[in-house]
Amino acid sequence: MFSGDGRLIATVSHDNTARVLDSATGVFVGTPFLHSAPVSSVQFSPNGGEVLTAGFDGGVRIWSLSNSSGSRLMVRHLETVLHAAFNADGSRILFCSHDGTACLWDAKTGVLLTDTLRHDGLISFAAYVSNQAEILTVSWDGMVRL
Fold first, then answer.
1. Could you say which DSSP state residue 46 is in?
2. pLDDT tens for each residue of 67-107
């Protein structure tokens, strides 16, 4: 995943880390972002100052690129989180899980903002629609919901 300005690349790994690299040099920037299980998703914040990670440990975390003291927010889900994303202004986090749920959270407080969206199979992808008022989910139950 490239940062908005293209200067950084974020990667995920089954070694329980997400890393950021300088796109021009390929050199790692800062320390790894650590989960207790493989990391499944990474995204830069809209302002480029933070990284959102999610993993098989059910953790969804926001990490500062300027401060390596750890994550500033952690939401714990009971199952593997497959994908997580910021909305366009970075105020909300959407994530989807192996248990067939998708959730929308406040990125500053970690408070759940909506009822949990459900499918009959795992949700492999969730995204904001361009108007930011709707959410698209894709599930292994064969359904795509808006």
1. T
2. 766 777 687 788 889 999 999 999 999 999 989 999 999 99
Compute the distance between CA of residue 95 and CA of residue 1 in angstroms, rounded to an integer: 17
> Is the pLDDT confidence value at 13 over 80?
yes
Task: Provide the CATH number for the domain around residue 33.
Answer: 2.130.10.10
**81 and 74 in contact (C-beta within 8 Å)?**
no
In this structure, the chain runs to a length of 146
The verdict on residue 1 lying in a domain is no
Q: Do residues 108 and 91 make contact, with C-beta atoms less than 8 angstroms apart?
A: yes
Q: Across-strand partners of 91?
A: none
Query: Structural domain of residue 101, as residue ranges?
Result: 8-145
Q: Give the burial class of 9: count Cβ atoms within 10 A of its Cβ; 0-12 exposed, 13-18 middle, 19 or more buried.
A: middle
Residue 108 carries which side chain, given as an amino acid letter? K
Q: Which residue has the tokens 């929308």?
A: 104
pLDDT tens for each residue of 23-49 = 999 999 989 999 999 999 999 999 999
pTM: 0.90
Location of structure tokens 């998708």:
102
**17 neighbors 32 (Cβ within 8 angstroms):** yes
